[in-house]
Amino acid sequence: MGTNPASRFGRAFGTRDFFRGAAFGSLVYATASSFVLLLLLADCLLLADLLVEQGQVTLSSDALEAVERRTQILLVPDETPRDPRIAFSDAGILPIVARSAGTVWSTPTAALYARVELLRSNASAMHALLLCGALLALARNVLCSRSRTFAARAGQQVAVRLRRRVHHQTLRLGPSDLENRDARHAFDLFTSSVDCLRDGLEEWIHALVRFPFELLMLTLLILMVHWLLALQCLIPLVFCWFLLHRERRRVDADRRLSDDRARSELSVLAEGLQKTRLVRGFGMDEFEQKHFNTHLERLEDNMTAFKQGQRRSVWFVRVLILAAASITALLIADKILLPETASDQLPLSATMLFVLSIACMHGPLEALWNLGKARDASGIALDRIYRYIDEIPEVGQTVGARFLQPLTRSLRFEGVTYANSGKRKLLDRFDLKIPAGSVTAFVSLDPLEALAAAYLLPRFIEPQSGRVLIDGEDVALATLESLRAETILVGGNDPFLTGSVLENISCGASNYSLQKVTEAAKAAHAHHFILKLSEGYETMLGEHGESLTPGQGFRLGLARANLRNPALLIVEEPAPPIDEDTKSMLDDAYTRLQRDRTVLFLPTRLSTARKADQIVVIHRGKVAAVGTHAELVKTSAEYRHWEYVRFNEFQRGRESENS
């Protein structure tokens, strides 16, 4: 994937996307708002000319005839004798109609004067132009708001699409996450990264559909007012604007450099605050004071140099702005002061339109200039999202996979080696055979080793070498659906789903009746506390519902697994402390769940390990010992150490305090 910001955005939102959906709606509204802006500026031109000229104009007989031909209105009756020069007063916008002869404004102004009778007198023209300006300003605000709304909708659509992909990818990668690191990363991507991208994309779409066309319209407008003056003014203004932004970038870079140096000096100075006993104990006061003063002077010199540079930059910017304004004012004044008969003479009303149009260009230019920063920030978020989406899952369904029958004879690990994403080897040529129908406990000094062995069974992770066999069939060659239907893992810290208790146990499947769900809950000793909830099995859990204790959530997980009646049940007990109600019921729940199936425990309670048919001690990725609790206490140093570390009297004391 390219590192260019345009290529990053092109993957999430291509050029074609501007011409369909919500982005196209934003483009249409933005284009309409640009045309309305031109009409608003034209209205301002007419209003300014009306205020300046006050509807007074003197026309020669030839000019009068030309105006009458263009407007198709007889301004002086035929029976009235025509003087060589005729003066009009209270004529509305007639002065600009007469003055625009031979320009691009000739036809529009003549048509307005001819068709809108209100524009033929001063008072009515003033009221009409003010009302029209207000309506145009309102229309522009509405159109800009709609353009922004559609841009936000387009950004939201991309965010929704990416959230779906992140969610789908999390379902593919999540089961392989032994240490729960990817889940936190995925949550950050799903929330903050996608939000950052959405906001940046909204700004990007809105700016690109609105401001380039708006700048083009404003440029054409000032070229129509006076093309030569437009070029004379725009070139120095754009050059000064570029130098201004270049100076701002330099100042920002100097500020970051100064801040880095200041932090370095401050860290050295702060170290002295932590060495007081050393300094006073060895009589190093004079040395420490000298060292402190040296770095303090460096800090002050650095801050002084930055402030001086900042003041020079401020003066440079002021001089630059003054120079640009002076050049522009001089060029415009030169055209205003020309005689009225000169072809290049610029009326005051046209001057106001010219200046106002140039002023309107500043906002779009600033927005487009700053767009790169927003795009880069969003591009970083987009890079993170796509790097995650492009990850290849560790486990995938094999081509030609076969349906796997439930476990009936034995479960076997055959030379299994597994290393996690950090290249840490958790299992090393791991060999083990477990008879069907037995209860086995996996224990290890490193909890990840036992967890890795358990995760291999439903193929949440894939070994780098070796095989896992169920009744002699390699699980890697089985369909994931058939394997995971008969191999259920209950996690000690599995969260409950957002939904009702019934949906949490049935996982939303409609083929489980309430009676079956209730029987599964009773076997896991969850039925009693469920009935105590506000609405029983219909009680909502999760974000906007009720919460459960870790022990209640664990029993809910046992009920969920029991409902599916798997041939192989893997139970990872929750980390202590466990509430007393759960402790008293677990042993009986386990007895019920162990009937007619193979059970594998990852115990955190000693009583669970003691009741297992066999305990497998895993140490440094290998099977260190196998036996019952009574046997291993006598023969396995690793097991005794595991028991002591987790269940010594000090540990039990801390757990009882926490509970």
Report what the structure shows.
With 659 residues, the protein is an alpha/beta fold. The protein folds into 3 domains: 5-226 and 348-388, no CATH class; 227-274 and 304-345; 410-645, Rossmann fold, CATH 3.40.50.300. It contains 23 helices and 14 strands. A 6-stranded mixed sheet has the order 8-11-12-5-13-14. Strands 4-3-6-7 form a 4-stranded antiparallel sheet. The protein is elongated, with a radius of gyration of 40 Å.
Gyration radius over CA: 40 Å
Q: Uncertain spans, ≥5 residues at pLDDT below 50?
A: 655-659
**Oligomer class:** single chain
The biggest beta sheet is recorded as:
6 strands, mixed
How many β strands by DSSP?
Answer: 14
Hey, roughly how much beta strand do the residues contain?
A: 5-15%
Question: What class would the helix/strand composition place it in?
Answer: alpha/beta
Number of helices: 23
Q: What is the overall pLDDT average?
A: 87
Number of domains: 3
- Shape summary: elongated
Q: Please give the order of strands in the largest beta sheet.
A: 8-11-12-5-13-14
Percentage of residues in helical conformation: 55-70%
Q: What is the straight-line distance between the termini? A: 50 Å
